[in-house]
């Protein structure tokens, strides 16, 4: 059966607005997902999506940069 409503390659390009106004480098194409302890998960889910994304990006970025700087 033919697709009578084809979508171009840029169809989803503008579906999502940026979560943060802070300048970021180029974001990875695929997200990383991890399971957390229940109490930490509950705390994070109580934050708004914007607060949660900003908090997690900042925290993970700081931790990885600190780890990479250690000899």
Tell me, rounded to a whole number, the average pLDDT.
Answer: 83
Annotation, overall tally of beta strands: 0
Oligomer: single chain
Which percent range describes the beta-strand content?
under 5%
Overall body shape: extended
- The helix count comes to 2
Estimate the helix proportion, in percent: 40-55%
Radius of gyration: 17 Å
Largest sheet: none
Order of helices and strands: HH
Give the N-terminus to C-terminus distance in angstroms: 59 Å
**Helix/strand structural class:** mainly alpha
Low-confidence stretches: none
Please describe the structure with a list of short key phrases separated by commas or semicolons.
71 residues, extended, mainly alpha, 42% helix, 2 helices
Descriptive notes:
The structure is a single chain. Helix content is 42%, strand content 0%. 0% of the residues are buried. It has 2 helices and no strands. It has 71 residues and is mostly helical.
């Amino acid at each position: 059966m033919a697709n009578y409503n084809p979508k171009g390659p840029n169809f989803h390009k503008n579906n999502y607005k940026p979560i943060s106004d802070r300048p970021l480098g180029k974001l990875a194409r695929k997200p990383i997902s991890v399971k957390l302890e229940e109490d930490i998960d509950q705390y994070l889910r109580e934050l708004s999506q914007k607060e949660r994304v900003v908090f997690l990006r900042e925290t993970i970025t700081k931790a990885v940069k600190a780890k990479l700087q250690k000899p």
